[in-house]
Amino acid sequence: MFMETIILGHCILNVNSRAPGIARWRNVVKPVWDIVKSKQAGFLQLPCPEAVYLGLRRWWFVKEQYDNSLFRELCRRIAVGMSEILEENNIGKFKLIGLGISPSCGYRETQSDPSWGGRPREVDVKSNLKPEPGVFIEILDETFRKYGFDYEIYDLPPLVIYPEERTGSRMYPRDFESCIRELCVFLEYDYRQLHLNEYGELVYSDSRWGRILVAPIEAAIKNRSLIEKYVEEGYGLILIPSSEILTAEKEIIVDVYVKQIENHLDVGHEILLMMYEPSSNLYKKTLEFLKENGLVERITVVTYV
């Protein structure tokens, strides 16, 4: 049992799920990944409701466009399913990391503009900010409270995740080093253990590589060096959480992951599917759903025992 658990917004470990044009990293948000693997903390990765709902060719959205009954219901089902998984794994205390100014995963601020809709047009993406959470974080917060979890919420500063043109907020640190220092404070990590120069020159355009490894969370927890090998090769991660007791709520999580994987395939992303033992019943159900939907034939399978 880990002393600490971190729950990560999906695209922190799979930048390929972001809308076109707003990805700073090629596969994972490297500073967060480096901290998580170094701390040896337990962690879970949420699915991406945006990538499931609208796919990978979606426009940049604001909160009002996601604030509709169908998207909120999708978020609620994900929140309930993940809460059931947390309870099964006796995880009652954790830290949740969202993504600053995201219309779904922002916490301190979200992008908001009721005028968005209709014919696409040029807009000022630095001025449409509101000091409130995005839709998904709102619903996660509401659901986690109902389950009685003990948790803290933080969202990554925009400079860590967006190209510079999207980083006009005044509620977050204004330079990269200060952003990483703030992250380290939240995660109680010694900033001096990170080497910022190793992250290379920051990317100011869409840098997604379109390569994704799907694996059970057991592989990331028990064999992080194996997962790190794929990260170093440029793969983003979709890590399926662990659950042995399958319920309708948890099978919804499986269905969500499978739909997201299909959406990645539909835009030409390369998917590696890891066969790894031991893995939980939830991962086995994911494999079953992938086969039932005819997706395994479009995926490269790699096996580790």
Provide an overview of this structure.
It is a single chain. The protein is α/β, with parallel strands linked by helices. The mean pLDDT is 92. The two termini are 22 Å apart. It has one domain (5-304). Helix 4 crosses helix 10 and helix 10 (248-266) crosses helix 11. The strands form three sheets. The protein has a four-stranded parallel sheet, sandwiched between helices. Strands 8-7-9-10 form a four-stranded parallel sheet. It contains eleven helices and ten strands.
SSE arrangement:
Blueprint: E1 5-8, H1 30-39, E2 42-45, H2 49-54, H3 63-66, H4 69-88, E3 93-99, E4 110-111, E5 129-130, H5 135-147, E6 150-156, H6 158-161, H7 176-186, E7 211-216, H8 217-222, H9 224-232, E8 236-240, H10 248-266, E9 270-276, H11 281-292, E10 300-304
Helical content, roughly? 25-40%
Sketch the topology as an H/E string, one letter per element: EHEHHHEEEHEHHEHHEHEHE
Radius of gyration: 18 Å
Please outline the major beta sheet.
Answer: 4 strands, parallel
- End-to-end separation: 22 Å
- Portion of residues in beta strands equals 15-25%
Helix run count: 11
Short description:
Helices cover 37% and strands 16% of the residues. The chain has 305 residues and is an alpha/beta fold. The longest helix has 20 residues, at 69-88.
Keywords:
305 residues, 4-stranded parallel sheet, 11 helices
